[in-house]
């Protein structure tokens, strides 16, 4: 952290996000100083302005700079590797359905097809559900 002067009588320090987070976790972001993180001026975990190296643009909307997200570790996923629909039977079912539709078709016919994206997004849904568990 480097002290670069004062703004409205409050000492200002340039620092990295990691340095500020360390101060925040220790309770040192108490309003007695302003931290400048990549041009964002933070005081008591509120964005108070933006500093471009010469000028300050004040902000008065008191948006938080850092928002903690609490994760419920007890939450169970709907999908697991054991009950996953994305198994060999499902793959074979999709292949069979695709083979049945492999006929000569014009571009206009292909464009008019309704695509059921729920069939194709299953793996993505399962992936994010598994992430929630961990």
Count of alpha/pi helices: 5
Strand order of the largest sheet: 1-2-3-4-5-6
Unreliable spans are none
Approximately how much helix is present in the residues? 25-40%
Biggest β-sheet, characterized? 6 strands, mixed
Order of helices and strands: EEHEEEEHHHH
What is the tally of beta strands?
6
Structural class of the helices, strands and pairings?
alpha+beta
| Mean pLDDT rating | 77
What portion of residues belong to β-strands? Answer: 15-25%
Shape: elongated
Termini separation: 35 Å
Describe this structure in words.
The chain has 134 residues and is an alpha+beta fold. Helices cover 34% and strands 22% of the residues. It has helices at 17-25, 88-101, 107-112, 117-120, 122-133; strands at 2-7, 10-15, 34-37, 40-43, 46-51, 56-58. Strands 1-2-3-4-5-6 form a 6-stranded mixed beta sheet. Strand 5 (46-51) and strand 6 (56-58) form a beta hairpin.
């Amino acid at each position: 952290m480097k002290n670069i002067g004062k703004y409205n009588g409050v000492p200002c320090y340039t620092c990295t996000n990691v340095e500020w987070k360390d101060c925040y976790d220790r309770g040192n972001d108490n309003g007695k100083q302003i931290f400048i993180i990549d041009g964002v001026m933070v005081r008591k975990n509120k964005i108070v302005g933006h500093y471009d190296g010469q000028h300050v643009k004040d902000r008065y909307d008191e948006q938080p700079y850092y928002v903690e997200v609490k994760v419920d570790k007890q939450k169970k996923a709907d999908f697991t590797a054991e009950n996953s629909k994305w198994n060999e039977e499902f793959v074979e079912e999709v292949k069979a359905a695709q083979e049945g539709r492999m006929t000569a078709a014009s571009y206009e016919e292909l464009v008019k097809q309704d695509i059921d994206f729920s069939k194709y997004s299953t793996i993505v849904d399962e992936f994010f559900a598994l992430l929630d568990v961990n």
